[in-house]
Amino acid sequence: MKKFVAFVLVLLLALAAWWFSGPYLTVHGLAQAIEQRDTTRLERYVDFPRVRLSLRAQVSDYMVRQAGPDMAGSPFGALLYGLGDQLGGAAVDTVITPMGIGALLQGHALYKRGRNELQGNDSWGPTQPAQPLQQAKGRFERLDRFVVDLDRGPGQPPLQVVLEPQGLRWQVVDLRNAVPQ
Fold first, then answer.
1. Spatial distance between the Cα atoms of 165 and 139, rounded to a whole number of angstroms
2. 8 A C-beta contact, residue 99 and residue 109
3. Which three-class secondary structure string do you get for 128-163?
4. Contact, 57 vs 175, CB < 8 A?
5. Are 46 and 171 in contact (CB under 8 A)?
């Protein structure tokens, strides 16, 4: 009987270790995929449809707040809001894809090359890799939600990357504070 209890205890400890290490392994894999500009590997760590829905809602909310109550109440304002919502949604749908993220990472590499931020002193060498998760701080909000805070500088709220379990692995499902408040 003691062996059975010990086995169950070890099994529960192993399961807890696997569960609580999952988000940290995901963040590490996500950071490596970004540094290596590997968009196919990035797909494994990001639930793109859920992230797009979240960002579309944030963009829509931002546009309504910027327009103000007077603009939203007028017929012309409603027309402009509808057009802006469609354009903002199309932009989010274009950028928040593996190809869109790849283009952003390629643009980052061109920006770094323009600023002469290269590895070594070789002008034909690779650029310094993007490392947005280098100063990340993570925490569990709930047992099934892990939030990574990314500092964006003074006076700005941190970008919060939300991870949730999807099957047996953790994935990014939301970006909070991605659009200015």
1. 14
2. no
3. CCCCCCCCCEEEEEECCEEEEEECCCCCCCCEEEEE
4. no
5. yes
DSSP H helix total and E strand total for the chain: 5, 4
> Residue 50's closest CA among 96, 86, 89?
96
Beta bridge partners of 138: 148
Tokens 């209890």 belong to which residue?
Answer: 5
Element (H, E) at 154: none
Q: What is the block-wise mean pLDDT of the chain (181 residues), using blocks of 10 residues?
A: 86 87 89 82 88 84 72 67 70 76 63 62 64 80 90 80 90 82 62
Tell me the β-bridge partners of 163: 146, 172
- 3-state percent helix, strand, coil for the chain, nearest multiple of 5: 60, 15, 25
Between the alpha carbon of residue 47 and those of residues 91, 162, 180, the distances in Å are: 18, 11, 22
Q: What is the predicted pLDDT for the residue at 129?
A: 66
Whether residue 172 contacts residue 161, with contact meaning beta carbons closer than 8 Å, is answered with: yes
As a dihedral over the C-alpha atoms of residue 143, residue 146, residue 149, residue 150, rounded to 10 degrees, the angle is 170
pTM, full prediction: 0.75
What integer pLDDT is reported at residue 127 of this predicted model?
Answer: 63
On the 0-12 / 13-18 / 19+ scale of CB atoms within 10 A, 149 is: middle
Check residue 162 and give its pLDDT.
92
